[in-house]
Amino acid sequence: MNEVIFLGTAGGRYVVAYQLRSSAGTVIKVEDELIVLDPGPGTLVHLAKKKLQVRKISSIIVSHKHLDHSADLNVIIDALTEGGFKKRGSLFITEEAINECIPLPYLRDFLKNIDFLKPRTEYTLEKGISFKTTRLLNHGAENYGLLFNMPSGKILGFITDTAYFEGIEEEFKTANILVINVVRYTRLKGVLHLCIEDVKKILSKLRPELVILTHFGMSMLRANPFKLAKELSKEFGLEIKACYDGMTIRV
Ligand SMILES: [Zn+2]
Ligand SMILES: [Zn+2]
Question: How far is the centre of ligand 1, averaged over its atoms, from the C-alpha of 68 (Å)?
Fold first, then answer.
């Protein structure tokens, strides 16, 4: 059974700092292999709590260098490879992150391979899974959206951290299941994140069968993501869910 397990749903700095939501990453479980996406702070702890064995990780993908997406990468590489005694795991990461010592240089040889994420490029993982990157998103840091080809034939898309830009919908139009990082409830000038108004704009141009909102900052938590998701579902006639820590969906 293949599933997506959202270990954490925290986005904004305050929500991460006070762990109002967990800031652990997302796991795509294919048969008994694990793909870890954006291992933020607490990922190792939450993998253990969910009884997901770290040595079963086949690939780690880091969409961009920010700590809420990469803080546990070092400790996960060390755990996965038993301190380098077993060469395991493939890492997909931006060149910018590598240049800023993510992961630490001494850990890099522990991995089977490291691939740079580039715009609109396809990467093959184990078990017949592949994923594609989108064009560069608008987030200040080098960052890409991701589209996974799942064995079921479904395409699982992740709109990772970004501000709205003209043409964003085009990048994710093939997604059957669309995960959207929506940090802000209202727009805050200069903050390169999506707000609810942006999500509405995106959803007016796309028809995925399931939308999952996640990566919440404080203004989103105050506005009650579950209520917002319900209202959006009604407005757009789509199935829209607000993510919670530990939420699992089948793909
Ligand atoms: Zn983030
Ligand atoms: Zn970010």
Answer: 5
